[in-house]
Amino acid sequence: MTATPLSGKELAAAIRADTAAEAAALTAAGTPPKLAVVVATADESSAWYVRSIARAAAKAGIGCDIVDLGEHAAPGAIRAKLAELSADAGVHGIILQTPLPDGAALEELAGAIAFEKDVDGANPLSLGRLAAGLPAFAPATAEAVVRVLDHHRVELTGRHIAVVGRSNVVGKPAAHLLLDQNATVTVCHSRTKDLAAVTSAADVVVAAVGRANLLGAEHVRAGAVVVDVGTNPTEDGGLTGDVDAASVAERAGALTPVPGGVGPVTTALLLQHTVRAAAGTS
Ligand code: NAP
Q1: To bridge 229 with a disulfide, which of 106, 208, 214, 279 should be the other Cys (CB 3.0-4.6 Å)?
Q2: Which of the two residues, 48 and 273, has the higher pLDDT score?
């Protein structure tokens, strides 16, 4: 068997087109949407990601301010900047980029992002509301997982989904969103015993670990659907997923590629959330 590739590119293009149209309408009505990305790191892959957001925002007609506080920024300075941007009526979406300097924790600082501008669902209030089934912006990556599955018409109701990873930005919110789709969800992590036994019992496996090629064919049931969220840098400057695509593609029924799967949809959703946040204030 060779797994069907579940591309995110077409879905991302459709979201970007809708978003650009909404951004143009908002701008014409006097509310040009704007995203602020707060950075406090010299990490090169983070810089690459921020540049890609800025490029995509420009193409969609969305303003994008990169607020670089430097890699030694104190937590108090980051919190103060987030509060300032939260109070700025010209800014509609705020992202706090990771990694953060030592001593600064995303979960603590993101509480300073106004809930209605929290377009990447980093404020614990957003995660709590998501868990309670209340309206909130979901972290874009977690939402992208569900949107890619929906786009490719993968049935989720009643199916067993194993999510590998329990971070607040991907694994946990993805689990909540999949529960909302009536899936039966098992969340795995570094202390899970016999990971392969758990994941190979699932109809759908979502890998959000951050370890290149951690999941191999032994982790996947024949014909299962596999979503690879991992974006691990390779020595040649490329990206590789958390799934060993070569072996898993021989066993799975469908597999998201890296790059070109969840990633492009994530960026598109961040911009869509920004436009929605701007529409809420116009
Ligand atoms: P993270 O905060 O480091 O969390 C990793 C999770 O994986 C943790 O819950 C950890 O368990 C678990 N884990 C680590 N080793 C494991 C093992 N051997 N077996 C089972 N579970 C294990 O990472 P993250 O921020 O969620 O990101 C996950 C991946 O998604 C990364 O590759 C990241 O680059 C990628 N990502 C992609 C996008 C995108 O747009 N495509 C966006 C964001 C992130 P413990 O909790 O027990 O430590």
Answers
A1: 208
A2: 273
pLDDT digits (tens, 9 = 90+) for 219-243: 999 999 999 999 998 999 889 999 9
Total count of domains within the chain: 2
The whole-angstrom separation of Cα 202 and Cα 175 is 14
Residue 189 CA: which ligand 1 atom is closest? 21
Whether 42 is covered by a domain: the verdict is yes
One domain, residues 143 and 254: yes
Domain membership flag for residue 213: yes
| Strand runs labelled E in the chain | 4-5, 34-39, 63-68, 93-96, 160-164, 184-188, 204-207, 225-228, 232-233, 239-240, 254-255
Segments forming the whole domain that contains residue 150: 139-263
Question: Which of 15, 167, 244 to probe ligand 1 with, by most ligand atoms within 8 A of CB?
Answer: 167
Mean pLDDT value across the chain? 97
Residue with tokens 């070569």: 246
Show the tokens assigned to 55.
């490029």
How would you classify the pairing of strands 232-233 and 239-240? antiparallel
110-161 tens-digit pLDDT: 999 999 999 999 999 999 999 999 999 999 999 999 999 999 999 999 999 9
Residues with Cβ within 8 Å of 7's Cβ and at least 6 positions away in sequence, in order, are: 256, 257, 260, 261
Counting from 1 in the atom list of ligand 1, the atom nearest the Cα of 49 is 40
String of DSSP letters for 4-59: EE--SHHHHHHHHHHHHHHHHHHHHTT---EEEEEE----HHHHHHHHHHHHHHHH
pTM metric for this prediction = 0.97
For ligand 1, whether the C-beta of 213 sits within 6 Å is no
Output DSSP code: residue 93: E
282 pLDDT higher than 70: no
* pLDDT band per the 50, 70, 90 thresholds, residue 281: low
